[in-house]
Design a protein that fits this description.
Blueprint lengths: L6 E5 L4 E8 L2 E4 L9 E2 L1 E5 L6 E2 L1 H8 L4 E5 L13 E4 L2 E4 H20 L5 E6 L8 H17 L4 E6 H10 L5 E9 L4 E9 L12 E7 L3 H13 L18 H6 L11 H13 L3 H13 L2 H14 L5 E5 L8 E5 H7 L1 H18 L8 E5 L6 H8 L6 E4 L5 H14 L2
Parallel strand pairs: 1-10, 10-11, 12-17, 17-18
Antiparallel strand pairs: 1-2, 2-3, 2-4, 5-6, 5-7, 8-9, 12-13, 13-14, 15-16
Helix pairs in contact: 2-3, 4-13, 5-9, 7-8, 11-12
């Protein structure tokens, strides 16, 4: 492939996405939305069939209450049967696959405008495991992501594990050799690698021997959001209410409202009929009535955004007063970092076990690992960071660019792979 051909790497994330290009010998992150090199993985379909909005423009249209439908975190449905299902958006019935094609087309168009020409080859990032403990579904998810990239206009599509891309990004800055533990924890998955990197290794064509271990688990920021929401918010919307007969209300409506990629599925005639039945049978109709109003007013994503911000704010404070009065009139709650960490205890344990398994699979003693390289927004959560570093107390901890390291590394991989 010619050294003048523009290549790219795309980090299509659950919460945010980036794209970086290679022109000549230069690797550059693309300002994919105004001056931002990241774009929220959000899509807004106006009710009147007007142009689809992406990223911050999509979330802004939603928060300004423009008529339409917001969709977020759709990467989470790769590998599920939902990817082929159809949903009504913008006055048309579309498959979720076609919706994701539109998002990648948007990224590609922005990159081509920045590059000043066509881009036909891409390395797509992928988690080590799209799903846990199911190789067949995992392979199907990668194949589907490849189909989506080709439908978006890419002729040549390759894949690289996201933590390996992060390792390449880290290596790009090195003047020495390191044995590094990579931790990439984003919105949907946590991915780990143990890799030998350094200035002496960058020029190698075959890097397979430098990759000592890869592992991952389906734990990310959206899981933590869901746990915090279920612990601190959903009880105020009826999750602990009972029927007049004393039975618990079903949990699925609350789990769906607390789960980013499920929120948009709740406002259907069938679901609203079920909500009406639950409301009529609820011993605390005023509390569950709040839930029903959130669904009717389509403020579920706003509620999830408030919870996500509370999670972020709890990283810097022991307790927090959260104003939820915009999605839920009159509602303010108080939550603490202790409540949050108790709510995510299961996720923290799964992370701990996966970190240990990755180190063990590398065949290296923990003391031999010189550096822990952190990327992905969820790696900034203090409880998560403790899990990532406590098993490697002698290693130097380096925080990379939390939102751009993977995309930049995927472009480096595109250069290495397509021009070698």
């Amino acid at each position: 492939m010619s050294s003048t051909t523009t290549l790219c790497g795309i980090d299509f994330g659950t919460s945010n996405s980036t794209i970086a290009i290679v022109r000549g010998h230069e690797t550059t992150l693309v300002p994919v939305e105004d001056s931002h090199t990241t774009i929220p993985s959000a899509i807004f379909y106006p009710t009147d069939g007007a142009a689809v909005l992406y990223g911050r423009a999509a979330t802004r249209a939603y928060t300004e209450r423009e008529p339409g439908r917001l969709m977020r975190s759709l990467k989470s449905i790769l590998g599920s049967d939902l990817i082929a299902e159809r949903t009504s958006v913008g006055g048309q019935w579309r498959t979720f696959e076609s919706i994701l094609v539109g998002f990648l087309k948007h990224l590609k168009a922005n990159a081509e405008a920045f590059a000043g020409g066509p881009i036909d080859s891409v390395v797509m990032g992928r988690p080590v495991h799209f799903v846990d403990n199911n190789e067949a579904v995992d392979a199907r998810a990668e194949a589907k992501l490849g189909d989506i990239a080709r439908a978006a206009g890419f002729k040549t599509v390759a894949f690289q594990f996201e933590p390996i891309a992060a390792a390449l990004s880290f290596e790009h800055t090195l003047t020495r050799n390191e044995l590094v533990f990579i931790a990439d924890i984003g919105g949907g998955t946590a991915d780990f690698s143990v890799v030998e990197v350094g200035s002496d290794r960058r020029a190698k064509v075959d890097r397979a021997g430098d990759i000592l271990a890869n592992d991952g688990v389906r734990v990310g920021g959206t899981n933590l959001d869901m746990r915090l929401s279920m612990a601190a918010v959903m009880p105020h919307l009826g999750s602990r209410a009972v029927t007049v007969q004393g039975h618990d209300l079903p949990r699925w409506p609350f789990i769906d409202l607390a789960t980013w990629h499920r929120i948009h599925t709740l406002l259907t005639p069938k679901n609203m009929s079920l909500m009406k039945q639950i409301l009529s049978d609820c011993a605390q109709p005023d509390v569950f009535g709040r839930y029903v109003e959130v669904i009717k007013q389509q403020t579920g994503h706003l509620l999830a955004t408030k919870v996500e911000q509370a999670k972020i704010d709890l990283s810097n404070t022991g307790s927090l007063d959260v104003d939820l009065s915009e999605p839920v009139p009159g509602l303010r709650i108080k939550t603490t970092v202790g409540e949050f960490e108790e709510a995510i205890a299961e996720e923290l344990e799964r992370l701990h076990m996966t970190v240990a398994a990755t180190i063990a699979a590398s065949g290296q003693k923990p003391s031999a690992i010189t550096t822990v390289f952190l990327t992905g927004g969820t790696s900034a959560v203090p409880a998560v960071r403790r899990v990532l570093t406590e098993q490697l107390p002698q290693a130097t901890v380096i925080e990379g660019d939390l939102f751009n390291s993977v995309g930049f590394g995927l472009a480096l991989e595109a250069k290495r792979r397509f021009r070698r």
